[in-house]
Amino acid sequence: MASDQNKQTAAEHTWKGEGFAGLLSGKVAVVTGAARGIGRAIAVDMARNGAAVVAVDLAERVSMITEFEPATKADLEETGKLLEAIGGKWSAKITDIRKIGELKALVEEVEREFGGVDIVVANAGIQAFKSLLEMEDADWDDIIDNNLNGTANTVRAFAPALVRRGAGRMILVSSMQGRYGMKNGAAYSASKWGIIGLMKSAALELGKHKITVNTIEPGLIDTPLTRNDRRWSMAVGETMTTPPPEHPSEEETIRARLPRVPLGVPWLTPEQVAPVAVFLASDVAVRAGREGVEVGGFVGMGDYGDFDAREVYAGDGERDAVHRDGALRDDLRGELIGEFEGETPVGGVEVRMKGDDGEEFSGGVDVTLDDVAAEG
Ligand SMILES: NC(=O)c1ccc[n+]([C@@H]2O[C@H](COP(=O)([O-])OP(=O)(O)OC[C@H]3O[C@@H](n4cnc5c(N)ncnc54)[C@H](O)[C@@H]3O)[C@@H](O)[C@H]2O)c1
């Protein structure tokens, strides 16, 4: 009996092989954090695939602890222009995901204007970096309140609307930093790991209402959240054991990133993340519930095993890209004279070196995936 039921359900939902055009036709999608970045790309891609889209954002500074430029009303208007150009039904709403009352009012408004909700993308989020040793209360509270509580508010406010609709999709935007952690990013990682737990439980509870819940876990994506000195410094710092440069150039950041991203790109664009959301939101993904999908160029977050940098020098005793005091120095050639000091296997290690000028210094060298592969 049970297997018969399964067969029937599977037959009902099997993708019949139609083209992907109009994959979301007839659906109403609500996307939070849609003024720019990943949220905007998802909103636009969903609209292109036939969904009516409600673009939601606070469109002003969310917290005083953040260092990136906040999104503005003009950003949200720009998303509106892009949606307008596609030609489907759309709306832009100013809402703060930290306020469940505002979200519940938004649900009523969307149901009134659009007749219901099928897809909820809980994407809005902020990021800031502070070491656990230096952290003040706001450094923890603001991130958890916005990213974790705000996402939970979004789920709690919209779940009844999806139940009323008889089916639905929830896509929560977590992060690879949530899954793997990041130095100086404990609050952000905890908020994003919390979102994975929220997704796992929500999927268990809402599955019986034909609602799937998944997370997307982006790696480094090029958006206003990340295109700034602070985020780039953290990216470079992931490959070093000494304090990273505070204002790394784009080139320096790319050089630090590249060896860590098997796909061969330093970061992805928001438009490369969006199709994953479109797929998860579609009827095709009816069985894809309770999963986290990494979209990050297959970055290995420090899982390359043990590596002895001394081996890198065997034979020639010099490397191409030596950095000294945090700055990349193509002109510098050095001889290894000391022990490998760091523990970061890919991207860069610290060593005692003697430069061509005879001066000794503590420097770093680039270590590539090939070097690690050679190590075995
Ligand atoms: N860019 C990355 O590398 C990256 C990687 C992993 C995860 N993410 C996550 O993806 C999501 C989008 O990031 P992005 O890079 O596009 O950032 P972004 O800053 O460009 O966009 C985020 C948007 O969310 C909005 N927002 C934030 N808090 C809000 C609130 N309380 N209420 C309403 N709107 C709010 C902002 O105003 C902004 O428009 C975030 O959750 C972020 O944590 C980003």
Class inferred from helices and paired strands: alpha/beta
Integer count of domains: 2
Q: What is the CA–CA distance across the termini?
A: 51 Å
Helix content: 25-40%
CATH homologous superfamily heading of the largest domain: NAD(P)-binding Rossmann-like Domain
The beta-strand count equals 12
Count of discrete alpha- or pi-helical segments spanning 4 or more residues = 12
Give the mean pLDDT.
Answer: 83
Main beta sheet: strand number and arrangement? Answer: 7 strands, parallel
Hey, roughly how much beta strand do the residues contain? 15-25%
- Identify the CATH class of the largest domain: Alpha Beta
- Output the radius of gyration: 23 Å
User: What's the arrangement of strands in the largest beta sheet?
Assistant: 3-2-1-4-5-6-7
**What sort of overall outline do the alpha carbons produce when their principal axes are compared?**
elongated
* Name of the CATH architecture of the largest domain: 3-Layer(aba) Sandwich
